[in-house]
Amino acid sequence: MDSYPAQSMPHGQPSPRRSPLAALLVAVAAALGGPACAEKVAQVSLLIGAAEVVHADGSRTALARGAPIRVGDRVETGANGHVHLRFVDDGAVSVRPDSILEVQAYRYDAASPQRNEVRLKLVRGTGRSLSGAATEVDKARFRLNTPIAAIGVRGTDFVVQAAPSAVRATVADGAIVVAPYGEGCSAGGLGPCEGVDARELSAGMGRIMAVVRPGDQGARLVRASDLAIIQTAFVDDRDAGARERDEQALSGARASGMLAAEPTAAQQQRGNDRAAAEMLTLAAVNVPDLNRPTSLSSQLVWGRWAILPGFNDELTMPFALARLGRHVTVADQDTGLFRSDPKVAGELFQPTASGQVEFRLTRASASYESAGGLEVATVRAGNLTVDFDRRSFATALDLRAMSGAEGRLRMAGDLRSDGLFAVIDENQRVAGALSTDGKEAGYLFVTGSAGSLFSGRTLWGTGP
User: What's this model's pTM, rounded to 2 decimal places?
Assistant: First the structure.
């Protein structure tokens, strides 16, 4: 367990009485303009890819595992960055790629819980929050602000995405209250906003998402899967209304998939069963070219959010094609894994398979990022094994960059009831899904560190 100070004061709050020497040291630190004048309220417990912290004085520091976070700090992740923060009260926040999280206030006093105060701001991107002891006694002492909406907690585990077009939130455990800013709800407040504009979202409501767009008078609750199922395709002569609907469909699918790619509370607690993954026997890849287009007849396809494919990407198809007859499962900033819609309404995952099944790698695209830049990578060997009786999976990849750098992925964990899986450990991440019949699979992956990072996406099948 990490060691933390017994009490942390938020930026701008009066400090406890100090000795003359302590007061002099703080004054010197403040005069020097360094962040040392603020107490540590959290530290980096996991770092994948590149990220940095912008201090209250404007200075920037590259993040490393174990780095301290103080009130006033802004954690900024790059396109491949993923950061976990562990706070003084054992609360946790996951900051996803291309995101900014600001610690506006964090006070934890176990002896006087009525004085506790937690205020965070998700400036942009995606973040997951698991509240800690500071809000156990009084959940009105917590607030997550976004540019257009405020979120208070009545539970413990939720995911939020903040973008200029909308704020979206889902709940894995407990409940939250979402409300747009307005009369009776300001960014300077604490706890849930009350009134007719506020909407409560709980985990017991199922796959429901709260959405607030600029100008909305209140939060709306929608089924997360509905955001990705649109029957019309992109055409060049669409009117402004059609273009807006298409853009909203793309934005909604992307947000829904990114939220689904976060591990659930149960998956987070179990973590990566590395021992199970290490036991796998890897089969050498015997497909001449894994990085090739996916057949439209496949149950699982990768759809991209951009019009043109990215670096070393022959695998994805445009969003307009991927979404036809399919819905998004998991996603990252660039792509989403789309699965054929169930034939029976309400069925998300009804596999006929049983026992332990080994999958064969059929498609993959990978890249390697280092100080020397971005280069092509390939999958040399792989294994994906699913135990349908135990609802678990294990996977392993051996990777090689064109420069000769080698990487490996070893991950295992639980399979959700809807056929999705997601696991994160100190330097690896996978998020994926099975087809509704359990015969196809796909996942996105990241493994390595900021100076040596492999990433990509895969597709698997049980056929010859």
Answer: 0.71
